[in-house]
Amino acid sequence: xxxxxxxxxxxxxxxxxxxxxxxxxxxxxxxxxxxxxxxxxxxxxxxxxxxxxxxxxxxxxxxxxxxxxxxxxxxxxxxxxxxxxxxxxxxxxxxxxxxxxxxxxxxxxxxxxxxxxxxxxxxxxxxxxxxxxxxxxxxxxxxxxxxxxxxxxxxxxxxxxxxxxxxxxxxxxxxxxxxxxxxxxxxxxxxxxxxxxxxxxxxxxxxxxxxxxxxxxxxxxxxxxxxxxxxxxxxxxxxxxxxxxxxxxxxxxxxxxxxxxxxxxxxxxxxxxxxxxxxxxxxxxxxxxxxxxxxxxxxxxxxxxxxxxxxxxxxxxxxxxxxxxxxxxxxxxxxxxxxxxxx
Amino acid sequence: xxxxxxxxxxxxxxxxxxxxxxxxxxxxxxxxxxxxxxxxxxxxxxxxxxxxxxxxxxxxxxxxxxxxxxxxxxxxxxxxxxxxxxxxxxxxxxxxxxxxxxxxxxxxxxxxxxxxxxxxxxxxxxxxxxxxxxxxxxxxxxxxxxx
Amino acid sequence: xxxxxxxxxxxxxxxxxxxxxxxxxxxxxxxxxxxxxxxxxxxxxxxxxxxxxxxxxxxxxxxxxxxxxxxxxxxxxxxxxxxxxxxxxxxxxxxxxxxxxxxxxxxxxxxxxxxxxxxxxxxxxxxxxxxxxxxxxxxxxxxxxxxxxxxxxxxxxxxxxxxxxxxxxxxxxxxxxxxxxxxxxxxxxxxxxxxxxxxxxxxxxxxxxxxxxxxxxxxxxxxxxxxxxxxxxxxxxxxxxxxxxxxxxxxxxxxxxxxxxxxxxxxxxxxxxxxxxxxxxxxxxxxxxxxxxxxxxxxxxxxxxxxxxxxxxxxxxxxxxxxx
Lengths: 343, 147, 324
Known about the structure:
B: Rossmann fold
């Protein structure tokens, strides 16, 4: 694998080079808070942000996506296909966010109905991960087996050596396609690579090697009627913060937009935390309260997801922990589930 | 909705109380007062029935202006409907100003059943004012984009 | 006269002697400088291992959420609730709107010198994810990326708290902290004044920028004590009224209409702004609503549980100058 050394001071210049080849989503900071956003200029980049508040899933599953348009022409309906996706680079993703993309891939590529729009967008997406040596206070990815120095799933990976330098690892064909932007950086020497190997070793040692997710899934499968659910939902406000910031939550609603003689069918973000999510056309709602909705969220993440796709629908990024208006801490819920005796 | 800028004509939605302003429109017609054809009228039982949602939705749907007209204060068919409407619309008027929505996109008036001439005059004024503002680009949704 | 009581003692007593079925208060939260709601049920509080009891209750600058919002989940029960001054106003508003019978509620008033706003804290620290942060003697000691920073608590307070004129809860049955000094109520909100000094076009740019940030997660609505409709207009689906696309017009529709519903009802507690994950300046528009109610109609939300509501009431000589 080819490796280079990228000084921290050159990060924005690197992103500037990348922006010449594709649109780039990267962390920016506004009023102290990090967000993943499409960059308009390279100097917007915040190269210190570890896990920005908004997740990069918006690049693959936009908040609003046109499935097709239609218009009436002389009384005839004409269907207009959605625009072709344009090449895009996701820059500076924490390894937990890269793992989240693997989760989205598993869902949207799955038979019998792979999602063509998602896959087309995914095909033109290059993922540039960035490792981290310090874990945010609210994160729990290590508990779930995600190592913040792991370059799995990345096309390029920036592995931190010290506050001033990263080793740039050029991993895949998509990554190699960006070589012209990388060539300005010197090759990594053996000393740097040895240091990186050491850092990787100590990071791996701090990461749970066997997170026991299958056992958790099996246990949850028997807890559908547990008393637990009536306790943990009481202070949940029922907003969509957790799901909308989550890098793996991918539920959507399909709506019709119309104006005069033209319209579009669009896919918009939705969440199991909203009452409207499950309300039937008849008005009946099988999930009557936040208890059922919160249970669905936990079950989908840690039971159904693992059962069906062999991947958890949670990567431990901690966004929902830090941003929940009621501080309903997913880590505490998981702890309670693990401590609840099996029936 | 598909005109080129040169052909653009303002489209205005008017919510008219059936007991007064709507009858005023009728009188304007019977009396052969001329007024611009840019107004689409929705007849409502009372100006108090007009939910601010209708006004905002009309702007989102691409109307260039919205007019709500009811009975003069004190003359409501249901005694107090327009008093309730007045507070609501006063709030909406100030709120839209505070949000920076162009002045005069959303207008309110009181027109009685006997004021055919006033009806025609207000429609003329409103159309001219909104034509001067140009197309509603602030709140009109542009999501439907495919060509 | 409202009696002074110790929070944990009075809570334990109310739950034990059957005065209330449920008690809603705060406990320390799990992330730095946060608090979480603590809901205790009579008969079962602290009975299960790992489950907190009244001894876990706290009140300090971390207790930012407006717990009155959670009251809607316990309709028909006798509930004791810990409220700040602004929360108490919201509660009075709900009594005014006949949502709760005051006799079913035991109000534990917590005089409040201001709460921490995650947004103000992030701005002060230039980070929203400190490794750790503690509050000692009105100073915040935070560690961000291994570097310790000390900022005065006042820098991290919600801007609304700095000019709050309702610090001491008005409708409390018990006071669970000592009264604090009040600020002058007559000061107009600076942010609103500043916006009015801008041109319409500048106000529009500000509004559009704020709305373009909104992701329609509805956290503002969900944490608001005044938003309790069985079906919100934004959730009407037969036919659908509000859009959910990323066109800022959909966010504008949602927020503008929600604000028309909040006029004369929003007490400015700021729970919505603190809950917003995208940093939308909701306070500016809520403060506008309060200024509108105050200057045009002499009305204060939640000040008088017997008064007719602002929108819904009328006077024959109400302002008419906005009509043609």
